[in-house]
Design a protein that fits this description.
It is built from 8 helices and 16 strands. It is an alpha+beta fold and about 300 residues long. The strands form 2 sheets. Strands 8, 9, 10, 11, 12, 13, 14, 15 and 16 form a 9-stranded mixed beta sheet that branches. Strands 1, 2, 3, 4, 5, 6 and 7 form a 7-stranded antiparallel beta sheet that branches. Helix 2 crosses helix 3. It starts with 11 loop residues before the first strand and ends with a helix.
């Protein structure tokens, strides 16, 4: 991964309808989103110049904003076009894509109903989220102290910036302990997700994954479930208890950044990446690659 800081790079960022030089894409220190987390975002990947499921991400961005009580003033088609434009302007074909929408600086205080809504889109080269040498061996996951919140206390269905605070804390703690990431439980103590990826388990050839009702049901998650079922694998969405972790044969996580990544360990529980996980790694790679799909 590049050692450049993210505020000091060559390139262009789409900012409220204009292409802005990367270093000049700035907001004021009294921006409402910085103080009150009134921001929503997406994480997307481009493969071969094509942004995978771009419209799905744009729709979710707008819906996340509505959940946070603001409207992104661009249509899905306009957001899709802007993402394609900034990808092309930066001369990238394989890249990470980050749209973010937020409340501006017109009013400071919890209430900011009339603050301007901004939208920016950045793209950059970002290879595998995890060390490629370790990825297929199965990454190691810690178990997080923090839990995903009760959906009656936080807008769990939105990809809202504030919801990732406990994810950052949990991932930092895991990395300091030598793990790649952390598994989080939900507010009732059941298995939920990782800090930035959904989780799947395999037992006797059947895939099990937690019901996504208090955490984000990822677009990659839905893609992998569809790919698995098309290949004849049974997928069960259900409540999974921590006491079951030792009963599974395989484990993998999914996300735009993680793609499909095998897991070799969660705390004291060991897993061996097997044929089913490998098949879905290959299936996802084929699905996202426009060259492969066109062949």
């Amino acid at each position: 991964m590049s050692t450049q800081t993210f505020d000091n790079r060559d390139g262009w960022i789409w900012f409220d309808g204009q292409m802005v030089e990367w270093r000049e894409a700035k907001v004021h220190v009294l921006t409402h989103a910085l103080h009150y987390a009134s921001a929503v975002f997406e994480g997307e990947r481009a493969y071969g110049g094509h942004i995978f499921k771009s419209s799905d991400h744009s729709r979710r961005l707008k819906e996340s904003a509505r959940v946070l009580d603001f409207e992104v003033p661009w249509t899905v088609a306009e957001i899709d076009a802007a993402k394609a434009e900034v990808l092309k302007r930066n001369h990238l074909v394989d890249a990470y894509v980050r749209p973010i929408a937020w409340r501006g600086s017109e009013m400071m205080g919890v209430s900011a109903q009339h603050n301007k809504i901004h939208l920016a889109i950045a793209v950059w080269d970002w290879p595998s989220y995890f060390d490629p040498a370790q990825r297929m061996k199965g990454i190691r996951l810690d178990i997080a102290d923090y839990r995903r919140p009760d959906p009656a206390t936080a807008p769990a269905m939105a990809k809202a910036a504030g919801l990732y605070m406990i994810c950052t804390i949990s991932k930092h703690r895991a990395e300091r302990r030598g793990y790649a990431d952390a598994l989080m439980f939900d507010w009732q103590g059941r298995v939920a997700e990782c800090t930035g990826a959904n989780v799947f388990f395999v037992k006797n050839g059947v895939i099990h994954t937690p019901i996504a009702d208090c955490f984000l049901a990822g677009i990659t998650r839905a893609t992998v479930i569809d790919l698995a079922r098309k290949r004849g694998f049974e997928v069960i969405e259900r409540r999974i208890l921590p006491t079951e972790l030792g009963e599974f044969d395989e484990c993998f996580i999914t996300g735009t950044a993680a793609e499909v990544t095998p897991v070799g360990e969660i705390g004291p529980h060991a897993f061996k990446p097997g044929a089913l996980t490998a098949a879905l790694v290959d299936a996802y790679t084929e699905e996202v690659n426009p060259r492969t799909k066109a062949a």
